Amino acid sequence: MTGQENQAFQESIAEVIKKRKSIRNYKAEVLTEELKAAIKDYAVTLQGPFDKKVRFELVDYGTLLEETGGKIGTYGVIKGAKAYIAGIIEKGEKDLEQLGYVFEKIILYATFLGLGTCWLGGTFKREEFQKILDLKENEILPTVTPIGYIEEKKGVLDSVMRLAVGSNNRKEWRELFFHQSFNSPLEETETAYTLPLEMVRLAPSASNKQPWRIVKDKKAWHFYLCPTKGYGKALGFNIQRIDIGIAMCHFEMTARSQELEGIWKVKEKSPMIEGAKEEIYIVSWIEA
Ligand SMILES: Cc1cc2nc3c(=O)[nH]c(=O)nc-3n(C[C@H](O)[C@H](O)[C@H](O)COP(=O)(O)O)c2cc1C
């Protein structure tokens, strides 16, 4: 994370993470030019832990409607939003994790600015967005988010979505974080990394599946994906790898805000962790 990125948040990152929620109802007001500029300026400073290129396009809903003959949409899930941000990634190794990490920084920055967002990986018309975004051969568009002023009144569809996936619930620590073995849950009192881990626990994930698992082993924090069987098959990419990128973002930003330094490293061989079942190794944070 660069100094410039750090300075963008004049509020504790943990407070911003706690404040963020998926917003599906928006006021029908267009974003001010100042806010658009602030988001664009922030987006260009961003770097991810992996080498795949991410780019963002701020798209105006009115223009989208015109250029796609009114076909653009979110199947009625998002109401009133006047702008969207599309996250486009160069295909390759760790592309989806990279997208999750960098896109979440924008989501958190928008939250800090008082704006609403909602990760959309399933309920948006990808082909219609793609038509106007001019994707290159080696690029994919896994997600978009609406961005705008929050309408406090909840819509029926929003409440149904939240209830269906249990958006207000999160798994317990003992289901997510472990010490050396998947058979040995990590206690909240056992580590200086309590806050970064808690901020992972509060992270958004596709259908709130919370597929992140983290194992501490000496100075390493190994991040695993516990895949939900058959989930998201129709998408043609593993959306849960985006969830891991989001978790990495929350973990690192919170750790650095607490002066807990480290680096990301992908081990050549997946660490042998006792009690492992279907978990897939992704990356490790190595404490400095
Ligand atoms: C990668 C990803 C994809 C998502 N896709 C959708 C989607 O297509 N439609 C939707 O309404 N919500 C979507 N969500 C939002 C999740 O349902 C939401 O984050 C989760 O239920 C937790 O609720 P919260 O964000 O309010 O904390 C997605 C979230 C993530 C991280």
Write a structural description.
The protein has 288 residues and is α+β, with helices and mostly antiparallel strands. It has helices at 3-8, 13-19, 33-45, 61-67, 95-112, 126-133, 156-165, 173-176, 194-201, 240-257, and strands spanning 54-60, 83-90, 116-117, 139-148, 177-179, 181-185, 212-217, 220-225, 262-265, 280-287. The chain has two domains: 3-163, NADH Oxidase (3-Layer(aba) Sandwich); 169-287, putative nitroreductase (tm1586), domain 2 (NADH Oxidase, 3-Layer(aba) Sandwich), CATH 3.40.109. It has ten helices and ten strands. Strand 5 (177-179) and strand 6 (181-185) form a beta hairpin. It is globular, with a radius of gyration of 19 Å. The two termini are 15 Å apart. The model has no long low-confidence stretch (mean pLDDT 93).
Strand content bin: 15-25%
Identify the overall geometry. globular
Per CATH, the architecture of the largest domain is 3-Layer(aba) Sandwich
Major sheet size, sense and barrel closure: 6 strands, mixed
Cofactors and ligands present? flavin mononucleotide
How many beta strands in the DSSP annotation?
Answer: 10
How are the strands of the biggest sheet laid out side by side?
Answer: 6-5-7-8-10-9
| Distance, first to last CA | 15 Å
- pLDDT < 50 runs, ≥5 residues: none
**Count of helix runs:** 10
Number of domains: 2
Write down the overall mean pLDDT.
Answer: 93
Task: Give keywords.
34% helix, single chain, binds flavin mononucleotide, 288 residues, globular, 10 helices, NADH Oxidase, six-stranded mixed beta sheet, 2 domains
